[in-house]
Amino acid sequence: MNHIDLIIPVIAPLLAAAISLSVGWRTVTKWANSLAAVTILGTGLLFAFGTRSRHVELFGGLLRSDPLSSLLLIAIGAVGSLVTVSSVDYIERELSVGATDRSDARQYATLVPLFLTTMVLVVLSNNLGLIWIAIEATTITTAFLVGHHRTRLSLEATWKYVVICSFGITLAFLGTVLLYFASVHSGSSPADALNLNTLVRRAGRMDKTVTRLAMGMLLIGFGTKAGLFPFHTWLADAHSQAPAPISGLMSGILLSVAFTVVLRLKVVGDAALGVGYVRNSLLIVGIATLTIAVSLMVSQRDLKRLLAYSSLEQMGFIAVASAAGTELAFVGVLMVIVGNALAKTVLFIASGQLQSIRHSTLLEDLNGVMESSRLLGVSMMIGLVGLVGLPPFALFVGELSIARAMVNANLVLPLLVTLLLLLVGFVSLIRHLGGMLLGPRTADEATWKARPSVYVALTLGLSASLFVGLVGSPFSNLVSSAAAVVAR
Amino acid sequence: MSASEFTTLLDLVASVLLLSSVIIVWRRDYGAMIKLLAVQGVAVGGIPLVSGIYLKDLQLVVVGMMVILLRGGVLPWVLSRRLADETAGSRETKPLVNTTSALFVTALLVMVGYLVTHPMLRRASTPETRAIPAAFAVILIGVFLLVSRKRALSQGIGFLVMDNGIDAVAFLATLGVPAIIEIGASFDLLLVLAILVILTGRMHAKFKDTDLDALSELRD
C-alpha cells in the first residue's frame, strides 16, 4: 500500500461531487469543483515528474500509474480546470436569464466532478473489466449533462447518445468476456486474468480465433466511445446540444481517453495475433472516420457541430497514425491529443459565450466576432491556429512525427489519403471560422461583458496551449516515455 | 446433484433463455414482454446458481441469487414502472419488420449463434460450453429487437435481452467474470436502464408519444 496516493485523483472529484450534491450551487461548490480538477492536474504532474518510480501498482494490479496514464491525468486535469472555472460563468448566466434552475445547477455541479472521476478511473485502471465499468460510467455521468437544457433537441441528442454508446459498450463487454475466456484457458488465474499486463504476458498462448473475435468487439465497442466509425453518429448531436463547457470536456478529453483504451488493447492484440489484425482495423476505421468527418465539415452551418466534426477528424487521424505502431507515431498521436484537448476546450468555452450573446450557434448568425468582443475573437483565432496544426502549437509537432512514422512504416498511401483529407478539413475550418471571426457583424446582439472566470479560463487555456508547444524537453520526454508504453 | 442432473438443469436453463427471447420477438404487448424478460433474467441467474450448487461453491450461489434478484426482479420492475405511465398504448405498434419475418430472422440468428461460437466449443466441451450457442443467439436476438422496434420502451427491452445473453455467455464460458467486475457491471446496467426510463418519461411529456421516429430533427 505504498502507493495509496494513486487514489487521490479519484477521491478528490468524488468529494467535490458530494459537496455539490449536499449544498447545491454555491460559492463553495464552484471552488470545490475547480480545486478537484486542479488536484487531478497536480497529481498527474507529480506522478510524471516526481522522484518516485514512474510505474507503480495498487490493489494487486487493479490500478496502476505509468507515464501514459500520468500524461492523461495532466490532460484531464488541465481541461477539467478550464471547464470547471468557465462553468461558473456559464451556469450563473443561465440562472440569471432563467434558462436553468437551482436544482439543475446542483445536478450540473454534481455530475461534472463525477464525470472527471470516471475518466480518471479509466486512465488509472489496469484491469479491462474495471476499464469497461468506468467507460460505461462516463456515459452515465454525462447523459444528463448532455440533456441539461431539457429541450426537444437535447432530449433527442441524449437518447441517441445513451442508446448508441451503451450498445457499443455492451459489445465491448462481450469482447471482455471472450478475452477473459481466452485468458483463463491459457492458464491465467481468474483474479488477474483481465489485467492488461497479464493479458500481454499470456497473449501468445491464448486461442487465436476467440481472441480475434474478442478484439473485434472490443475495438468497435471502445471505438464507439472514441467517436470512431461505425458508431460515431452520437457525437455531433451530443456535442451540439450539450452545454458548451461539457462539449469541451467531451471533445477535448473524453474521446481521447477512450481512444487510449484502444491503444492499450492494441498491445494485447499485437502480442496475440501479430501486428496485422489491429493495424488493418485501425487503418480502415480511421480513414472511414476521417472521410465522414471531413465531408460533413465542408458544408457545415453550425459552429458546435463543426467543432465536433473537427474532433471526429482528429480521432480518425490518430487512429490511422496508430496503425504505424512505432514510438515515433505514438509521440505524434499524444501530441495531437494534448494539442486538440487545449485548443478544442478554448474554442468550446468561447463558443458558449458567443452563444449567450447571439442566442444561436449557426455560423451565419455569428459573423463579426472580433467586432463584438476582442477577447472572444482573439481567443478563438489563437485556438483555431492551434487546432489546424500550425506552428508553434503541439499539433504541428504531432503531425510531423506522424508523417515521418508512417513513411518509415511503409504506410505512404494511407498517409497521402490522410493528408489530402486533413487538407480539406483545414480549408473548411479556416473558411468557416475565419469568416465568422473577421467578417462584418450582421446580427443584433445582447450586451455582453466578459466575467473574470471566462478571462481566466481562456487566458490559461491559451497559455497552456502555447506552453506545451514551446517548452521542449521536460514535456517531450514525458510524451516519449508515454508513447513507449504502447509502442512495440 | 449428479452430473447428469446438472447437465439436464443447464439444458433446461438454456432452452428457457432461448425460448423466452423468441416469444419476446413474437409478442407485441409490453406487459407480456416484461414478464418474459423477468423469466429470462431468472434463467440467466440460474446458470451460476445451478453450477454453484453442483460445484459446492458458495460464492457462485450468492452471485446467482443476486443476478436473479437484479435481472428477474429489479430491472423488469424498473421497466414496468414506466409502463404504468404509458398512455399511448401498451403495445409496440410500429415494428419495422412484421411478426412472421421477424420469427424467420430469429431462426437465422440462432443458426448464426451456433456458427460463431464454434471455436469456443472446440476449445473446451463441457455441459456449460455446449449451451453457449443458445446464449449467443439470445444476444443476436436482442440486437435484432433493438434495431427493428420503434418505440422507446421496446428498445429498452431489446437492450436488456442483449445484455442477458452476454451475461449468460459469461457464466457459461467461465462461470462469470470476477465478482467485483460483475457487481460493477450490473450497477452500470441498472443506472443505464434507469436513465433510459427517465428519458422515455421526458419524451412522453414533450412529444406525447414515445415513437422514436420523432427523434429526427438533428441531422446534417
> Spans of chain B of 5+ residues with little confidence (pLDDT < 50)?
none
Q: Rounded to an integer, what's the Rg of chain B over CA atoms?
A: 18 Å
Gross morphology of chain B is: globular
Assembly level: heterodimer
Mean pLDDT of chain B comes to: 87
Tell me about the biggest sheet of chain A?
2 strands, antiparallel
Radius of gyration of chain A: 21 Å
What is the structure about, briefly put?
With 488 residues, chain A is mostly helical. Chain A contains 19 helices and two strands. In chain A, a hairpin with a 4-residue loop joins strand 1 and strand 2 (63-65).
Give a structural overview.
The complex is a heterodimer of chains A (488) and B (220). Chain A has 19 helices and two strands. Chain A is an all-alpha fold. Chain A has one domain. Chain A has a two-stranded antiparallel ribbon with strand order 1-2. In chain A, helix 6 (152-185) runs antiparallel to helix 8 (208-225), helix 9 crosses helix 12 (303-324) and helix 10 packs antiparallel against helix 13 (327-358). The relative contact order of chain A is 0.10. Chain B has 220 residues and is mostly helical. Chain B has one domain. In chain B, 80% of the residues lie in helices and 0% in strands. Chain B has helices at residues 3-26, 30-55, 58-85, 99-116, 118-123, 127-130, 132-148, 152-174, 179-207. Chain B starts with a helix and ends in a 13-residue tail after the last helix. The mean pLDDT of chain B is 87. At the A-B interface, helix 5, helix 6, helix 8 and helix 9 of A face helix 5, helix 8 and helix 9 of B.
Present the secondary structure layout.
The complex is a heterodimer of chains A (488) and B (220).
Chain A (H helix, E strand, L loop, with lengths): L7 H16 L3 H23 L6 E3 L4 E3 L1 H31 L4 H23 L3 H19 L5 H34 L10 H7 L5 H18 L8 H8 L2 H30 L1 H24 L4 H22 L2 H32 L10 H4 L1 H14 L6 H15 L3 H27 L13 H19 L2 H14 L2
Antiparallel strand pairs in A: 1-2
Helix pairs in contact in A: 1-2, 1-4, 2-3, 2-4, 3-4, 3-10, 3-13, 3-18, 3-19, 4-5, 4-10, 5-6, 5-10, 6-8, 6-9, 7-10, 8-10, 9-10, 9-12, 10-11, 10-12, 10-13, 11-12, 11-17, 12-13, 12-17, 13-15, 13-16, 13-18, 13-19, 15-17, 15-18, 16-18
Chain B lengths: L2 H24 L3 H26 L2 H28 L13 H18 L1 H6 L3 H4 L1 H17 L3 H23 L4 H29 L13
